Amino acid sequence: MSDPHFLVITKGHPFEKGPFFEMLDRLDGQYTHVEQPLAASILGPELMRPYDCLVFYDMPGINFESGGPIYPEPSQGFKTQFLALLKAGKGMVFLHHAIAGWPSWPEYRRIIGGQFLYTARKIDAIEVQDSGYRHNVR
Questions:
Q1: Measured distance CA(108)–CA(122) in Å, rounded
Q2: Which one, out of 28, 71, 114, 119, has a CA that is 20 to 30 A from the CA of 59?
Q3: Which of 115, 92, 100 is nearest to 11 (CA)?
């Protein structure tokens, strides 16, 4: 059996690139890195066949504007391809801020097991507060 090959997807939220990629370099196997929005356009069963696992460290579907965040919905093509990857059994890992991705697509929230909310929203017909956060907690 050969070493695993991961596709690592980033962008949408700042992070310390040096330590993150140093961590990945210490893993067994190899990885390929791609940033959003390119990643969304190539996520499909055929192009993802070489990868054993997809690692999401991204935050797509949120545009931060001066009046507050805007939540565009993913294209139907993206949804179809993403769901096809799951149906094919492709392994996926969602790290840290990836939980905030695609807030306008309820199925994504259910797939990854949760959602970070930047603003109060209606979810499944229930008004929900924003998730809240604190910086520099020690």
A1: 15
A2: 28
A3: 100
Burial of 43 (0-12, 13-18, 19+ CB in 10 A): buried
Closest CA to 12 of 118, 131, 138: 118
Is residue 137 one of the residues assigned to a domain?
A: no
Q: What are phi and psi of 128, to 5 degrees?
A: -125, 135
Has residue 47 been placed in a domain?
Answer: yes
Of 6, 13, 62, 61, the closest CA to residue 34 belongs to: 6
pLDDT in tens, 59-110: 999 999 998 889 999 999 999 999 999 999 999 999 999 999 999 999 999 9
Domain count, the chain: 1
Q: Which residues contact 29 (CB under 8 A, 6 or more apart)?
A: 3, 4, 5, 6, 52
Task: Give the pTM.
Answer: 0.89
Q: From the CB of residue 113, how many other CB atoms can be counted at a distance below 10 Å?
A: 8
134, part of any domain:
no
Pairing of strands 5-11, 63-65: unpaired
Residue type, 83: L
Domain holding 112, by residue range, is 5-128
